[in-house]
Amino acid sequence: MRTQVVIIGSGPSGLLLGQLLHKHGIDNIIVERKDRDYILGRIRAGVLEQGLVAQMDEVGAAARLHKEGLIHGGIELLFGDVRHRIDLNAATGGKNVTVYGQTEVTYDLMEARLAAGLVTVYDADQVTPLDFAGDKPRVTYVKDGATHAIDCDFIAGCDGFHGISRRSVSAGGIQEFERVYPFGWLGVLSDTPPVSPELIYVRNERGFALCSMRSHTRSRYYVQCRLDEHVDDWSDDKFWDELRRRLDEEAADKLVTGPSIEKSIAPLRSFVAEPIRFGRLFLAGDAAHIVPPTGAKGLNLAASDVHYLSQALREFYVEKSPAGIDHYSTKALARIWKAERFSWWMTSMLHRFSDTDPFTARIQLAELNYVVESKAATASLSENYVGLPY
Ligand code: APR
Ligand code: PHB
What we know:
Layout: E1 5-8, H1 12-23, E2 28-31, H2 36-40, E3 47-48, H3 50-58, H4 63-68, E4 70-72, E5 74-79, E6 82-87, H5 88-91, E7 97-99, H6 102-115, E8 119-121, E9 125-130, E10 138-143, E11 146-151, E12 154-157, E13 175-190, E14 200-203, E15 209-213, E16 219-225, H7 236-246, H8 249-254, E17 260-274, E18 277-278, E19 281-283, E20 289-290, H9 298-318, H10 323-350, H11 358-373, H12 375-386
Parallel strand pairs: 1-2, 1-12, 2-8, 5-14, 12-19
Antiparallel strand pairs: 3-7, 4-7, 5-6, 9-10, 10-11, 13-16, 13-17, 14-15, 15-16, 17-20, 18-19
Helix pairs in contact: 1-6, 1-9, 9-10, 11-12
Residues 8-14, 31-34, 39, 44-45, 102, 124, 127, 158-160, 162-164, 285-286, 298-299, 302 line the site of adenosine-5-diphosphoribose.
């Protein structure tokens, strides 16, 4: 087989890239190790920056997003038992975010790819990017017991943090930056009405909490937990009691509880690989970086990587210029690090760290008071939360 670009991974990064390349007449094949149902079974965050919404519009996959997505012009910070609204809209000259599950984004992109008749190879084992140091790269994989090879011009590694693409780069050719946080998030999805119309980020002496949603009838809640805890340690009742204890009185009274339809614990880490271009192999999305979910940047950072990479490939094929692919890594990493900083800052400000560090607790409260009292600080949080320009 032959195509212009082989995309490894059928998550949001790979799917969005595939549609953008297709829109500009660039042939691509996605090779994915899991099947469609497995991918759609993953529960992930659900806050979309306008840049991602614009790209979904660009590839014609935004109809349901506009119909079902919830436009949010603000968030709330709850600390010291007081809720403070951050008016994102006012602080950013009218920008907002859209609340719409990542699973729905993935589904909509899968449907668009299917409608376009593009090739996705699911259940591909032993996917291996090869010869990407030269100008004739290829990708091999095993399916139904047979080994297949796809010759191509470029390989896009959109295979996530645990994928093969980054691991295929020689150790000396890549530098990794990482910070692992000493806590996790226990998340619950429930078919209950959200406790508040906007998201509430909570800093509480017992630990962080987040009240989010997927729709007016489906809520998503998180509480910070220890890394040695297991999801089986948390009955639904125990979760709801703990969440209530971290909320203000009004929210605790209004909280509608119900059976969890999904419950899981996720560790938090910051991670960046440098560079993210290796000859004819490019990394994008979680394959290149990980952010703690506190800033809602994971999916949105994947979208900006894909924006830069699709532009670069279009310049190569349409304008016959290598400038875009030569600058992809530098350009994408500049925005990646800004989102890493914001996600680290939100995480550092809102979570309970060591018990023996009262100084940090005071600094966190000072930071939060500064954010809600200073117009400049509110604007800084807001412009990062709605998404810095591409
Ligand atoms: N071969 C083929 N496919 C692979 C391989 C492999 N060796 N390893 C992983 N994959 C597939 C996974 O099965 C998955 O479908 O690559 C895809 C990667 O998707 P994601 O992990 O969702 O990463 P990405 O598309 O970059 O999306 C980033 O997802 O994890 C969240 O918080 C993250 O919101 C962010 C978004
Ligand atoms: C979510 O809805 O899952 C969500 C929202 C905002 C975050 C993290 C997760 O910062």
